[in-house]
Amino acid sequence: MFGIENLTKTFGSGAGRFTAIDGLNLDIQEGELVVLLGQSGCGKTTALRCVAGLESADEGVIRFGDTVVFDSGRGVDVAPEKRELGMVFQSYALWPHRTVRQNISYPLKVRKLTKALKEEKWVEQAADLVDCGPLLDRYPHQLSGGQQQRVALARGLVSRPRLVLMDEPLSNLDALLRVRVRNELHELHQRLGFAGLYVTHDQSEAMALGDRVAVMNKGRIEQIGTPQDVFERPETSYVANFVGITNVLDLVREDGRWRLKAAPDEPVEPASLPEELGAGCQVRFRQSDAVIVPAPTSRSCLRFQATVADSVYVGRSYDVSVSLGDVRLNARADAAVAAGLDRGKPVTVEVPWPACVWFGTDGLRVPVGDLVPS
């Protein structure tokens, strides 16, 4: 198991001092791929660099199994090349004047693994793992972006490291190639079972690759769990927003009934909600779950009236922007319903209960379960 304990890293001094990592704790099991997910500046890349030894943290401990590679209290800070790591960079970092074979073999030469290099054919094996065997005598400029990324991955794996670190390795690929290489990387991890720490700002990438996903904010992990847990049961309003639950309605309880804060005169159904929500709450839901219907249905759901602001055809359905007081929400409509939508027209929006995520005024999720009011 690989562990990070109470890791803290600051930059600058005086008024310009800021904390990039703030008491970070994280474990990675053998064979597990953990994804650090977050927006730019959240500390995910700094954390990766500290694990790699490219940055020295101010406080904390980093363990690789029983080996401590960093301990601020005891003055331990093992050099990067002695940490038995594999690194895959965002920019690939391939030497243009060296062949694919020479690029992949570099970690073996640095660690003086002569037998692995010459007799055991680790370079050829690593290249074959990522389908780059026929490319060993080519130079980087003779490769496509996807091929270069595979070479970078082979170099990260060739020394059979204890932990593979990947810093947004797919971000330089175009959209279609990114999906293909992402799927190949997932298959490779399933086949080899290496332990890895993967950094990205891309939600779909994190969900597709991670055994667990850790959402970072201001140097801390706000939530860590399986992709399904994080996607469907975000623990904080920040995590919900980051994983695409961007529609937000604030509700207040007045005289025993729930009303929309943005439009208190507009009806919202149901008027009665669980006591766990307190006197005020926030409900969040995805655009894909908010459906514009021609007339209220009989199903049990969150239902409210809104006004059409705009609609855009996205193939087989429409993305519809609606207004509710001064709040703008995003919903969807099928082609038949969208044909009758005009700007300024009142519409009914329905959201199924399981798709609603509820938060208290402190931004923490309220565990009301599968809310199905009577």
TrEMBL record:
Keyword annotations of the record: ATP-binding, Cell membrane, Membrane, Nucleotide-binding, Translocase, Transport
GO MF term list: ATP binding
SUPFAM superfamilies noted in UniProt: MOP-like, P-loop containing nucleoside triphosphate hydrolases
Protein name: ABC transporter ATP-binding protein
Pfam families: ABC_tran (PF00005)
ABC transporter domain span: 2-243
Originating species: Nonomuraea ferruginea
Superkingdom as given in the UniProt entry: Bacteria
